[in-house]
Every structure is written in C-alpha cells, then in structure tokens.
Design goal:
2 helices, alpha+beta, 4 strands
Length: 60
C-alpha cells in the first residue's frame, strides 16, 4: 500500500531515439525497441526508419 509515491515519481529509463521527439521513457511504460534503440511508440519508430503508415486500398 506504499506504491502511490512510486507511481508519482516514475523513473526515467531512457529517451525516445527519435530525435524530433526525445520523450522520456519511464519505468513500466510500453515502448518499441529496435536493436538498442527505444522509441516511445510505433509512430516514432516508423518515422526514425523512414516508414509511414498507410491505408491499403484494394483494386491495384
Ligand atoms: Zn517518441
């Protein structure tokens, strides 16, 4: 029952490897890992490797 303080002071483990983001990645957070790089979400990973999310349309 003494976990409240822990939740309020989340430990910063790393920073998003996307230089345009560089968000704090805290203990217990879900992050995306590529090699030794950590990204705060899939969008940052995609941007860093030059991938984009598209909607695939039929008919081609
Ligand atoms: Zn990020």
């Amino acid at each position: 029952m003494s976990k409240v303080a822990d939740l309020q002071s989340q430990e910063v483990i790393d920073y998003c490897a996307n230089e345009e983001c560089s968000a704090e990645i805290v203990f217990g957070q879900q992050a995306t890992k590529r090699g030794k790089d950590l990204f705060c979400n899939m969008g940052c990973l995609c941007q860093a490797i030059g991938a984009v999310v598209i909607t695939v349309k039929g008919g081609e």
